[in-house]
Amino acid sequence: MSVALPASKPRLDVQLCAPRGFCAGVVRAIDAVEQALLIYGPPVYVRHEIVHNKYVVEGLRRKGAVFVDELSQVPPTGAPVIFSAHGVPKSVPAEAGERKLFAIDATCPLVTKVHREAEVHHRRGRTIVLVGHAGHPEVVGTMGQLPDGAVFLVETMEDVASLSPADPENLAYVTQTTLSVDDTREIVDALRQRFPRIAAPHKEDICYATTNRQEAVKAVAARVDAMIVVGSPNSSNSQRLKEVAERAGCPVSRLVLRAADIDWSLFGNIRSLAVTAGASAPEILVEEIIDAFAARYDVHVETVSTADESVFFPLPRELRGKAAE
User: Fold this and answer.
1) CATH architecture of 11-22+208-305
2) pTM (whole model) above 0.90
3) Which of 76, 84, 86, 299 is most buried (most C-beta within 10 Å)?
């Protein structure tokens, strides 16, 4: 009597994009919460999600971090209150100071750079044009560095066309750090065409990690059957990676947080897959998703690297000496 052998799994070639996952600003922000918990013990209050990733946030919550939307939700306390990597309006540290809260600013230094640029232009009498997405915490924080009316937000080419500043000869632009490089270039070109004297940043505002991850996606998107971007739906840089893959010619591009979120009906007949991760997605979730495919396919993984990253940001100064101890 013969025994039927299980059918062999189909081969799947996986192109693993590099760089991917955590950037230096995200590492710094998460480390700030973890170090504060180690040094001061729970609770440690965090205004907004420290980074846009549910897995990371839930992990920190289990360790004793308490996430709040506004400082008004923080009781009178001597416990640390940490501001997220996305940055905050000036009104937030001012409120923390009035309440004598122990505030620790974990804003990414590259976001702080944009804040300082905007302030310098404002002091020089220029009106600021901010290229970004309305309502994103980083945009709210950047606009909140200056008085009401000092910043015009543009999201689209149509916004550029309808822009009507009081002094068109005295403008400067800055951008959100997590935008699509290509989309932003089009909008900036349109701004320069309408306002030839508009002042530009001394160095590109879109951060190195956003740019590098998008370039890695472009390198593989057209030669695979599908792309998975590991990240949260509310992560701007992760959403942009999905859009970049689609624009570069990938037939199926999906943003997923975890393996349980994969819609397998979209990946039934693929022979090649690219995997990347947004700057706030931990590597453990990348491994989890590759393992999920390995349960269904004979997976062969190749890393495709387009850049090396060695950027490091030190902890906020309030934690440096304590962390060393």
Assistant:
1) 3-Layer(aba) Sandwich (3.40)
2) yes
3) 86
Q: Which amino acid is at 83?
A: F
Place of tokens 């490089």: 181
The rounded distance, in Å, linking the Cα atoms of 228 and 242 is 8
Three-class SS state of 143:
helix
The tens digit of pLDDT for each residue in 123-179 reads 999 999 999 999 999 999 999 999 999 999 999 999 999 999 999 999 999 999 999
Q: Residue 5's CB: how many other CB atoms inside 10 A?
A: 6
Neighbours of 134 (CB within 10 A): 12
Q: Does residue 268 register a pLDDT over 90?
A: no
Q: CB-side exposure of 313: number of CA atoms within 13 Å?
A: 22
Q: Is 277 exposed, middle or buried (0-12, 13-18, 19+ CB in 10 A)?
A: buried
Looking at the domain 25-108, which fold is it?
Answer: Rossmann fold (3.40.50)
> Do residues 302 and 13 lie in contact, with contact meaning Cβ atoms separated by under 8 Å?
yes
According to CATH, the topology of domain 110-194 is: Cobalt-precorrin-4 Transmethylase; domain 1 (3.40.1010)
Residue 141 burial (CB < 10 Å; 0-12/13-18/19+)? buried
User: Alpha-carbon distance 182 to 184, whole Å?
Assistant: 5
Eight-state DSSP code of residue 224: S
The answer to whether residues 100 and 77 touch, using CB atoms and an 8 Å cutoff, is no
Enumerate the CATH 3.40.1010.20 domain ranges in the chain, comma separated.
Answer: 11-22+208-305, 110-194
Residue 298's CB is within 10 A of a number of other CB atoms, namely: 12
Of 138, 243, 309, 325, the active-site residue reads 138
Q: ∠ at Cα 236 (26, 255), nearest 5°?
A: 100
| H runs (alpha helix) in the chain | 24-40, 54-63, 91-98, 109-123, 137-143, 157-162, 181-194, 208-221, 236-247, 283-294, 317-324
Task: Give the Cα separation of 14 and 23 in Å (integer).
Answer: 22
